[in-house]
Each structure stands twice: as C-alpha cells, then as structure tokens.
Fold these 3 entries.
Entry 1:
Amino acid sequence: MKKFIRILGRMFKVFVASALPCLALATSAMAYYAITDLQTLGGTYSDGYKINNSGQVSGYSYTTGDSTTDAFLYTPGTGMKDLGNLGGDGSWGLGINNAGEVAGYSFTVGGAQNAFLYTPGTGMQALGTLGGFGSWGSGINNSGQVTGASFASQYSFNHAFVYTPGAGMKDIGTLGGTNSLGLAINNSGQVAGYSNISGDAGIHAFTFTPGTGMTDIGTLGGTASLGLGINDSGQVTGNSLTAGGVQNAFLYTPGKGMIDLGTLGGMSTGYSVNDLGQVVGWSYSSGLCDAILYSNGQMFNLNTLIDPSSGWTLAQATGINDLGQITGWGYINGQEHGFIVTPLPEPSILLLLAVGLVGMAAFRKRFKKAYPDPAPRSQSQGQ
C-alpha cells in the first residue's frame, strides 16, 4: 500500500509540474498586476515609454521647477536617473535594450534636434543626421542599433534610418513617397515604422529587413496605417484606419497579414508587442483614454486588472517586456506619472494547487486509516 500511495503522490507532483505552465498560460491575460510609481526627476510629470527584460524603463520627465524635460533611465531598486541632454533645452528617452542602453533625441546647443544613444558608464552621444538639420531616435536593439528619422538635407523631407555602432547612420528609404519614420527595431535589425506611399497618396506601415528592403504591410481597409512596435518574430503592432474610417490597433504576423485587435468602444492603438505576441497600447472612448493589454485573442482594460483602491488611472501602455511587465503613463494624485505594472500569480491557480495539495494529504490519511500497512515481517518469516 505504501508503494501505491507513493505512486499516487508522484502522479500528483507530475500533474502540478505539468499543469502549472498551462494554467498560467491560459489565465495570463486575466492576471492581477502590482503597480509601481516611477516618480519624476523632481517635477510634476513623467512618462514611461519602453521596458527591458530587467524591468528597466526609458522615458522622460519634468525636472525640478518643470522648466525642462529630460530623458531618464529607471532601474528597479535604484530609481530614476537623469540622462541629461546634448547641450540644449530638453531630451526624450524612447527605446531601451537589455543592456540598459537608451535611444531618443535631444535639443543641441544650436537648437536643433539630434538622435542620441545613451550607454551606461559612457553617457549620451549624438548620432548625427542624414545631412539635414535634425534627427530623432526611437528604437534600439540589443546590438545597439538605433532607428528613427532624419532630414536628408536642410529642411527637406525626413527618411527612416538605421544607425549601427561603428558604421554610422544609413538611410533605409521610403515606400515610394517623400517621408518615412522608423520607430522600432528588433534583434535581427528589422525595423517597423511608416512611410508615404507613391505619390504621397497615403501613409502605410512598413517593415524593413536588411538585405531585402522595405515592405508595405498594408492597412485594415482604410487609407493609413502606422507601425509602432516589432518583436523578434517580425510581428508588428500599431494602428490603422478601417474601411469605415475608424482607427484601430492591429497585429501583423509575417505570412498571415494584419488582424484588427478591436477597441474598448471607440478607437485604439497598439504601441508595443513582446515575443509572446502580447500587445499593449490604449483605447479611447467617451472622452476617456485607457491603457490596454491584448493577449490570447482578447483586449483588456488594464485599469480593471489593478487594485481599484490604488488611486491610479492608467491612460496609455507603451511598452511590454517578455516577462509581461508593462510601462506607460497614467494619473495618480492629480499628476501624470510613469508606471510599471508587474503580473502577480493568478489567485485561482494558487487556490487550485492549495486545494489539490490539501486534498491529496487528506486522501493519503484516509487511505492509510482504511488500509493500514501489514505488520512488518520478522527476520524468520519468508525464509
């Protein structure tokens, strides 16, 4: 009987070990989230923008006195670090990679805007331009490649670029029109963004692949789309006009095309997609803007997944990492602050496992009482 009970015990352990990942996956979209206030650089306002797999966040904040906005790097347990600027009045941190490098743009001494790359221990460096007056950095990958846009000549049209450390800035062209902008770059060097199409007849989201070039990924039936985020599988999120003229978030998958993610009742935008295909962004309805999470085929209002007594209203979610942590901005005590929300274990899973463990313990106790082990044999028995 002991052997039978041990077998049952092992079976239950195997069940727990095998079921937990499945249960977590199935209920991940319904998880509750703990919220962290990123605070500010001394002013009254901050926005979180992107988040890496260590929970570090890039963004921008008013400094003391609300006189200027500076880029920041937020590190859990350390807080917010002012990244400074390129000599002018203000900087904005947008992309971040897993090494804590930040891409963005800053005003220079002469008043121009210039894309930058911030490296911990080294500081902020200007990335230059494609020959014109200004540039803007938006996304960065783990190799330190940066994408954004730059004027190609003085006050001309702007083109998307890829900056590679040691090689400089490369113009990646357009979809046939006059303007383009790169907004996100994955670890293969693929870029998501948007561009005027031929004749400037509209603006379409694109992917750029090294060695292949720029591909129009279409729309949801309307005349315009914007690519805002890309993951390592080449999935892209952003927004598009539908045939009815409504702006909806989308998820584009190579080989499958673009799907409409819907809204919470009005219009919506997807800002970031992680390697699990989860999308974050915002949805606007009846004068209100709510941060959203799209996961497992459903769209959720993040405000319904945090403690209602927290005092927070989450307005926009702009970044999500592969652990499901989300950054963005919302309102707390009447001020606009950046946030991180972190998934908590699903209570129903913990309850299920606890009930299972208690049930197994009770079963073993009842089984042993009903079927006691036989008395141990003496040394002489069976010989």
Note: The chain is about 15% helix and 50% strand.
Entry 2:
Amino acid sequence: MADRYVINNDGLLYTVDLPQDKKLAKLKPVVRRLCVPRHFQHEIVKYVHEQNGHYADQSLFHTLATHVYWKSLFSDITEFCKTCKVCQRTKVNFGHRYAPLNPVAPPDSVGAKFCMDHKKV
C-alpha cells in the first residue's frame, strides 16, 4: 500500500494506479490521481457537475475518477446528484413510466357479456 501513494515536490498526495498485466500496461499507462481532502470534495463535485451541463451520476463519476480520488467518490457523487435542484426540476424520472392499472369487475354469472362501461348487455 505504501507504493500506491506518492507525494510530489509540491507536497500533493497522489494515488498511483499500476496495471497488473504487462499487456494491459502497454494499453493503459500509469495513472496518477490527486487525493482530495474532505473539505474540498463537495466543492469539486459541485463545480464539475455545474460546468459540464449537470451530468448524471455515472458520467460525473467517470469524469472525476480520471483526475481525483477519495474513498467515497461514487457515493458522494450519487448523493449530490439526487439533491441537485436543477436536475430534479429538469430531468425525466424514468422510475414511474407505467400507467396505473384499472381493475375490471368480475361477471355476475357465467357467460354474461359486458360492455365497455361494465354493464350487462
């Protein structure tokens, strides 16, 4: 774990992602991500979210995760996007896309026919 974190000449702490496989090392180079203190995390998420057109949580995470690091990055982003007033007013909620079902009354006798307004014919 000690070799996973690096302090540069300016005194900033970075986490280093090292590829496990040699073939992967050719495709994905070593990535350094800045470790962000807790009191700056909310401001960073807010700034990137507003500057990039109110990204959803997945897109915002992929944008931020390439540059910065903290332990609860994804959960903090998800919580922020749920509480963003602009996103709540403008984005479509796909959770309630189905129309409510209207129950049909059972027939009074076997073989009885019903019209659309559920009266005997």
Note: Residues 36-90 form one domain.
Entry 3:
Amino acid sequence: MQVKKNRVPRMTLNDRIHQDDPLELPKVGRPIELSNEVEKAVVDCLVLCGQYQYPMRRRDLQRFIQSYCTEHNVVTR
C-alpha cells in the first residue's frame, strides 16, 4: 500500500482529494505586508544594485523597506 510506503497520513490524502485545487498548498507563516508588485519592485532594485556593483547588506535592505513603508503609509505589525 502506497500510504504506508511513503508514510503520508490518510487524512492528508483525504483532504487533498476533496479540495477544490489539490495542488494548492495551505498558507503558512505570517500574512504578507507588501503586495506582490512591491516585492517584485524590491527584487528588481536589488538586482539592479548588484549589476552596478553596489551590494546591499541586510541592514541596508531593512532601512530601504522601512523608508518605503513610512513614505507610503503602509501599516505593519
């Protein structure tokens, strides 16, 4: 039996079979604060900085995002 071989719980398989879209994974973690468009723009900015040999450190990125949120009145937790 495949269930025992792969050790997938029966209820997990049952839930996946009865979902509207069985390939859609449940959302885990914190909800997002920024839209997908803003996140894509941030990634594009980081890539551009890398192309110009201007690496951003983690703290630089945090300040960049913080200034964006402050400027656009984005409420975060």
Note: The mean pLDDT is 83.
